[in-house]
Each structure stands twice: as C-alpha cells, then as structure tokens.
Design goal:
single chain, alpha/beta, eight-stranded mixed beta sheet, two-stranded antiparallel ribbon, 13 helices, 16 strands, 30% helix, globular
C-alpha cells in the first residue's frame, strides 16, 4: 500500500491570521472539500468532555469544520455516544447538558447535537465485521450509521488502556453504543452492586434472555449462564447498580477498537482531524485533567485515520517531556505514551487497523504554512 498523505500545520501565527484560519487552511489543503457533501448528513464525531475536565477541544475548532461542510452543501451535526462508566455523560440528557455546558450547540457551532446511541445508550445499529478477529457484529450508535459521511475531529491525548486516544479511538470506542463499549472493554458480562439496587426491576424489562432475577431482599442478580452480554441492562439502570465487567486486556482492547473503526468507516466517505494540543495523560472521559505530557505540537488532517494516528504519535515522541508532568524525568528516547502507561502498546491498534484495511501506517507528511 502506498503511503498516505498526512497534512500538518504548527501553532505559530502572525498578524492577519489565527489558529482557526490555520485549521481551515489545513483542512482545505488536505482535500476534505473533494467529498461530495451536497444534501448529505454529516456526522462530526467529537468528544464533548467530561464535566470537570478542561482539556477537551474548544467548540471554536469544531465550528471551522462545520462551516466548511455547510459551504459545500452538507448538513452537519455534532455527535458522540453515551459512556459505559458512571459519569456525567451516561445518558443522553446528562450528555446534552454537559455538551451545552462546554459550549457545544447551535449558537456556537451552527450545529445541532445528536447523541448517537439514544437516551440510554441502547439505540444501536449492528454492523457485520466479516474479517473481525474478535468482533463479529459491531454495535454502533444508530445516528452515526445513519449519517452519509463521517468526519472525526479528535483531541489527541494519553489513555491509560490504549496508550493514547486519537482518530481510531474516537471512531472505534467513541462510536460504540454502551453495549459496544462493553464488548470492547471486556469479554465478560455485567454484574450487580446489590448495595445500590433498589429493586425497581427496570433491568428485567430490557433483558430478553431472562437472565436477571430477584431474591427475597428484592436485590437483582445476573445469571451469567443465561446472559449474552448485550449490556442493555446497563442502560436501563438509573441507580448505577449494574456494572460492566472489569476483565480486559490492553492488547485485545486495541484490536477491538480497530475492528469497530472499520465498521464505522467502511463503505462511505470519511475524513479525520487531530489536534495535538493539551496532550493530557488521561482521556477527556476523566472528570479532571493534568499537566500535559508534552508541549503543544499542532494540527493534523488526513483521509487515513491510521496514518494520522501514526503521524501524531511520531510527532509527540519528538517533543520533550513537559516539566511537572507524569513523565518528567523519563528517558528522552522512550515512547512518551509507554512512559506514562508501561502496560500499554498503542502500536497494536494501528497494526490491526492496517491489517483490517482501515488505512496504512506509512505516511508522507505535508506541511502547510
């Protein structure tokens, strides 16, 4: 496979320009406008940030992308899927509240916000993955799959299980429904924290396999012999009493994200933008952020999400560790993300995505002034 082109611009500005104009110029140079947007629904897949986290991307950046889509006749909307874990974005109501709190809405971006997997994270499309090693049928947020075109706009940052979160994580994990996220994070099945269970039985109404029963204390239990791991009970519980399994492998997680990414992009136009700024050690799903691992790098864009992630990682590894960060004092020659999270290997996801045909790790870097 020939190298893919990845376009880059740094953060230097001068009189008469600014970072928003540089981002627009970068996306245009990368050729996003070659896509036929006319009267097409365009999902702008972003991360609205967990409440308390201030490293998420400013909505100003997203507006640049949305404006370009509209100028080409497209119909853009901002989207993300609900979280698997307990937090401020576990259902669509809370998720929308956080999106508005962080400045994402029609008044600031000109776009409506649609939570792709619905109110409780159970609105999903089942996408066959014929070549999947771990995933046979990806569970993707319905609105993501309903869109004609998908554009990923991601904040490139660290991640304690994936090494870093870039384009592939934004697509694979980010577009999975709650059940899809559970499938990626673990091969096990959910369980009940009975101290939180109120006996409301909302979970039983969602279980199609009669796997949930109640004892004399009115507390739920899940029969793992009957449970198929669909995760619908997770979405049904309003009391955080049903929890996802905790078993996982970072290597398997990376491969599953690659297979989910394939399910999201296969067969339709897609384009990807990565902003390598505020490279926090943890995902924006955390309710806090820390001192960035490295100084800011710049903006990257490509039609190839695999090449894009590789280029961003390479650029990060050329930067010195940030003073005061969790990798301060680490070997300057070491990988920045492995230094932060020694149990992770981000290369596994990229290698598997390349094997799946999502893209190639080989790239040509084109600098846009």
């Amino acid at each position: 496979m020939n190298p893919s082109k990845v376009y880059f611009t740094d953060l230097h500005v001068h009189g008469g320009t600014n970072l928003l104009l540089k981002l627009r110029k970068l996306i245009q140079a990368a050729g996003m406008e070659k896509i036929d947007f006319k009267n097409k629904f365009v999902a702008l897949k972003i991360h609205f940030g967990e409440e308390g986290n201030l490293a998420y991307l400013r909505p100003n950046y997203v507006k640049v992308v949305a404006d370009l889509v509209r100028e080409q006749g497209g119909i853009p909307f901002l989207t993300d899927c609900n979280t698997l874990y307990v937090g401020s974005r576990k259902n669509a109501i809370d998720h929308l509240d956080v999106a508005m709190l962080h400045g994402f809405g029609p008044a600031t971006t000109g776009c409506q916000v649609i939570i792709a997997d619905g109110l409780k994270g159970t609105d999903e499309t089942l996408v066959p993955v014929p070549r999947g090693e771990f995933v046979r049928e990806a569970k993707i947020g319905h609105a993501v799959m309903d869109a004609d075109i998908i554009i990923s706009v991601n904040h490139f940052k660290g991640h304690e299980q994936a090494g870093f979160g870039g384009a592939l994580k934004n697509l694979g994990m980010g577009c999975g429904s709650r059940a899809g996220k559970m499938e990626q994070h673990a091969s096990g099945k959910p369980h009940v924290n009975q101290s939180r269970c109120t006996g409301c039985r909302a979970c039983t109404r969602q279980c199609a396999h009669d796997a949930i029963s109640f004892g004399g204390d009115r507390r739920a239990s899940i029969d793992h012999e009957k449970c198929v791991g669909c995760g619908r009970c997770l979405g049904a519980c309003n009391f955080d009493a049903i929890l996802p399994p905790s078993d996982h492998s970072c290597e398997i997680l990376g491969k599953k994200m690659a297979e989910y990414s394939w399910a999201v992009v296969d067969g339709r136009p897609h384009f990807h933008v990565s902003l390598v700024i505020d490279v926090s050690p943890f995902c924006d799903c955390h309710g806090e952020n820390d001192i960035p691992l490295i100084p800011d790098v710049g903006f990257f864009a490509s039609f190839d999400p695999v090449a894009l992630d590789q280029a961003c990682a390479d650029a990060c590894n050329k930067m010195p560790p940030m003073a005061g960060s969790v990798i301060e004092g680490s070997d300057p020659a070491s990988d920045r993300f492995t230094a932060a999270f020694p149990v992770t290997d981000w290369r596994v996801c990229l290698e598997h995505a390349e094997k799946m045909g999502v893209g190639t790790r080989a790239y040509e870097l084109v600098t846009v002034k």
